[in-house]
Amino acid sequence: MDELEPIGPDEALQLYLDHRRREVSESTLRSHRSRLGHFIRWCNEEKSIDNLNELTGRNLHEFRLWRTNMNGGIAPVTEKTQMDTLRVFIRFLETIDAVRRDLSEKVMSPDLEGKENVRDVMLNREHAEAILDHLSKYEYASRAHIVLALQWHTMLRRGAVRAADLQDYHSEDQCLEIRHRPETGTPLKNQEEGERMVALSAPICDLLDDWIDSQRPEVVDEYGRDPLVSTKQGRIHPVTVTSITYARTRPCDIDAPCPLNRDPDECEAGSYQGASKCPESVSSHAVRRGAITYHLQSDVPTEVVAERANVGANVLEKHYDQRSEKTKMEQRRKFLRNL
Fold first, then answer.
1. How far apart, in Å, are the Cα atoms of 126 and each of 227, 253, 291?
2. How many angstroms separate the Cα of 278 from the Cα of each of 120, 231, 240, 272, 273?
3. Phi, psi (5° rounding) for residue 20?
4. How far is the CA of 113 from the CAs of 77, 106, 148, 270, 318, in angstroms?
5. Taking residues 292-298, what's their average pLDDT?
6. What is the pTM (predicted TM-score) of this model?
7. Based on the structure, what is the number of domains in the chain?
8. Is residue 331 part of a domain?
9. 73 in a domain, yes or no?
10. Quick one: which of 329, 309, 273 has its CA closest to 189?
């Protein structure tokens, strides 16, 4: 204890975030801030710990119990994510003499089995095609059309959709460059390892050409760059990408019957602002998961999908591939028929 330097919970969190800022994307940093915010609040409000030198293994266990029981409990996968992040945070504090050595080893995190650590919400092919057909007919080359088409056909994360510049799109070569530019506001989740060139189909290029020629607001962002997907205010915001996805994946948005038999005029999710409350709408991540699964179901090799979507093969199989075991077997059968 004599070797430790006193530090408060809020100051410790800020030092940690400043330390990780150059290592991770802004979205990951926000996630860490949110997860660790529960621990900081527990220290300040529940235990009145104003010096983290005092932290013990028992304190960490007490926090875990408090977190898992608050608001009726949290899912095991959420518990694991938050405790794993806490372990990384405590490990950092050890390096700056803020907590006892090896305290991070006392952070307990649940072991999840099988599919318990996998979220299976995704946009299926039929719904995706119905959305894109509807947009093509009624809102062709609109911003929403561009966002959904890029997410579905290229499996891009929302950050990559936002990051693309006009100059990154090459119509004649039918491709889109994905670049990590943290210094001008568009980092990629996997940083330099997320950089790649994505091949585009002729129909997607036609769509992008028409967006650029007739719909795209000709603006620059605050760094003087020309965003490919722009608004009148500049580069599209990540929240806008999410809002578009939630709004456009509601069945009522394409005049499809509501599975819950709700009246859109009276439903709380009937407005654009309330779209995320619709049980049938999905996030950008679910669109990406659905697109990856669709590519795999279409017999695109796993390594090709992994490189195009910028995700490791192991992570792809565990978190994105929603094919049934029977579907996988039948696809393998196609390659074995002539042997």
1. 30, 15, 11
2. 17, 25, 17, 11, 11
3. -85, -10
4. 10, 21, 33, 38, 12
5. 86
6. 0.66
7. 2
8. no
9. yes
10. 309
